[in-house]
Amino acid sequence: MRSSVNPSSVSNSSESESLLQIAEWARVVSEMVQENNLLKRRLSSFINDNKSSGKILDILEAFHSSFLIKDTHLALLIQDIRKQEMFAKALANEKVKDLNFDFQQKRLHFEVVMMQEQFLKQKDAFEVLISAHSK
């Protein structure tokens, strides 16, 4: 993954800063979606190209399930990011501060950072497995 979200970069910020942060999250999550799709294709190619059996097949099946679950989590995160963006734009138009917005902003920041960390660990583990069992 090319970019990451700074774990300590969330703060009580202006609407424009909030919108920039939301755009950054959307970009990072979009990259994770693309990479997750790539990992699923690599998994499929690996299974087609190699005679896998036994324990390695169980591990590959677990990765496949994990990639599918990650798809769902990423889709939900994208949905939450879009809602937060609409909320930020509405607040900017009304020129008011909302404590729920700040809470949601911090929650989303935490979720994006955690998803990124989990994704990178999973990707690294998959890369190690594929490298160790390639022809």
Going by helix content, strand content and strand pairing, the class is mainly alpha
In round numbers, the mean pLDDT is 87
- How many β-strand runs? 0
Q: Specify the number of helices.
A: 3
Q: How would you portray this structure in words?
A:
The chain has 135 residues and is an all-alpha fold. Helices cover 81% and strands 0% of the residues. The chain contains three helices and no strands. Helix 1 packs antiparallel against helix 2 and helix 2 runs antiparallel to helix 3. It is rod-shaped and about 60 Å long.
List the helices and strands and how they pair.
Blueprint: H1 15-49, H2 55-94, H3 99-133
Helix pairs in contact: 1-2, 1-3, 2-3
Which keywords apply here?
135 residues; mainly alpha; 3 helices; 81% helix; rod-shaped
Q: Could you give a short description of this structure?
A:
81% of the residues lie in helices and 0% in strands. The chain has 135 residues and is an all-alpha fold.
